[in-house]
Amino acid sequence: MKKYISAIILMAVVSLFAGAGLRAADKVTVRPGAGISNVVVDRIGRNMNVNMDVDLTKVNIPGNKAYLLTPVLVKGDNSVELPAIGLYSRGSFLQYLRNGSKLSRGETMTYSVKNMPPSVNYDVTVPYESWMNGCELVLRQEQYGCANCKEISSTSDKLGGFRIKTFTFSPDFVFARPEAEVTKSRSISGQAFVDFPQGKSVVNPDYHSNARELAKIRATIDSVRRDKDVTINRIYIKGFASPEGKYSLNEKLASARTTAIKDYVKNLYNLSNNLFKTDFVPENWDALRDYVENSNLPHRTRILALIDDDATYTDLDAKEWKIKSTYPDEYKNLLENCYPFLRRTDYKVDYTIRSYASAEEVEEVLKTRPGNLSLEEFYLAAQNYTPGDEDFNKTFITAARVYPDDPTANINAAMAEMQEGNLDSARRYLRKAGNSGLAAYAKGLYAALTEDFDEAWDYFRQARSEGVREAQDAIDQLNYRKELLGL
Q1: Which domain holds residue 221?
Q2: Given CB 3.0 to 4.6 Å as the disulfide criterion, which of 13, 107, 134, 458 pairs with 86?
Q3: CA 443, 446, 452, 455: dihedral to nearest 10 degrees?
Q4: To 5 degrees, how large is the angle CA 346–CA 348–CA 351?
């Protein structure tokens, strides 16, 4: 059962919006004496709502005059006119009735001095647009004379506005404690192409490129042998020969050459013969097939069919002769470009690393030989630091580099990167995080931090169902966000 540690950091500030209006006691008087109060500008879901009270008790309109009051939401070069209020004198109202023409097509509330109510509540909703963040509400006042001729136009100061209110997503970053390894067993492997003179099976370091190939084997062994904390348990050596010539001869050569390389390594390091395990393949037909399959040989398909035909050609010498005699040009190509690489030596070193008992020892190994640490030891090393600080996060990121395919290592590295705000890096680790409840929780955090809240919701619900208790708090935060947005 994995144990978790967590660190809470305020990470994502998601912009939400709420109205900022005048207080109930505030009132602004505009032409022709209308009083504006209780202004609220608010976003409701996908719409913008403007609500205000318009006091008409002190409106004074000279004869044959009319006024158009048009609320306008404005920010920079962007604006939207809201439905207007038309206020008419007795004469201008009679003209309106006779001609059926309002002051503006956007006028939706029309009153004459004769039937004007004491007050009206203005309540209008328009589609929300992104530019409305930080917009202001003003009132344009226009005076009209006879024949609806505009005479005076002015704009009020700000009546209300739309301010930004922030919702801060506060993720709880959860780190899993990996299971302890009873024995830290590791292996390192490679390939070398040690060449031998025809018919010989003695290692000659000066022959062809043998110096370089033998150096590869030595470097592999040296990389673990020089570490005082490492114990070598087994060295595997497996030799391969190419198919040309008699199978019986190839079998003898493959065995003898494998033994020769084993003896070279054993004598070089003065190792016990019991430490070695050897094997050999007389003719490396599998690698030959891979080469042909990925080649552009003219008769590639037919040669592949011959290689795969074990029923007809039970004798490998006969099969090799068939390819050589039927496709001599392709065979020459194989001899020059493929067969040298079929004659190879695979080697592997199995070893164990001792465990580290103290936090100080683990911290030292982390700095010098991080590959020696188990995942649990990386976890213990992180406990020497403050959750969320640079060294804490770096420890988990290093663990994922040492164990690139381990789901727990990738979850913890993703958590660390998200703590530092490195979301692109976190996304790469999440690809290898697996499908556990904690992996779902980590993916939910990434989705929330990138403002994909629908996907985050799904991941958090999955994590909650699989026992990640921190998922409930994340769900509660998303619910609160919905309330603020009116979703």
Answers
A1: 184-351
A2: 107
A3: 10
A4: 175
Domain boundary among 351, 373, 396: 351
List the one residue out of 203, 184, 187 whose CA is nearest residue 195: 203
Task: Please state, in angstroms and rounded to a whole number, the distance separating the CA atoms of residues 362 and 384.
Answer: 10
| Strand positions, DSSP E, 274-386 | 276-281, 345-353
Helix (H, G, I), strand (E, B) or coil at 100: coil
Same domain, 360 and 346: no
Helix (H/G/I), strand (E/B), else coil: 1: coil
283: how many CB neighbours lie within 10 A of its CB?
Answer: 22
Which structure tokens are listed for 373?
């640490």
- Helix/strand/coil percentages in the chain, nearest 5: 40, 30, 30
156/160 Cα distance (integer angstroms): 11
Is residue 13 included in any domain, yes or no?
no
Q: How much is the mean pLDDT over the chain?
A: 89
Q: Please give the single-letter amino acid code of residue 24.
A: A
- Among candidate residues 330, 351, 372, the one where a domain is terminated: 351
Distance CA 15, CA 17 (A): 7
Q: Taking each helix axis as running N to C, give the angle between helix 437-449 and helix 453-465, from 0 to 180 degrees, rounded to the nearest 10.
A: 160
Token couple for 199: 């018919």
Task: Give the chain's domain count.
Answer: 3
Neighbours of 403 (CB within 10 A): 20
Q: What are the tens digits of pLDDT across the range 64-112?
A: 899 999 999 999 999 999 999 999 898 888 888 877 778 888 888 999 9
Do 327 and 403 belong together in one domain? no
Place of tokens 């144990």: 3
CB-based contacts of 248-253 (< 8 A; 24+ apart in sequence): 250/282, 250/283, 251/282, 253/196, 253/199, 253/201
Instruction: Give this prediction's pTM.
Output: 0.61
| Segment (H or E) for 32 | none
Please check whether residues 332 and 365 belong to one and the same domain. Answer: no
Task: Report the CATH number at residue 150.
Answer: 2.60.40
Query: What percent of the chain shows pLDDT beyond 70?
Result: 93
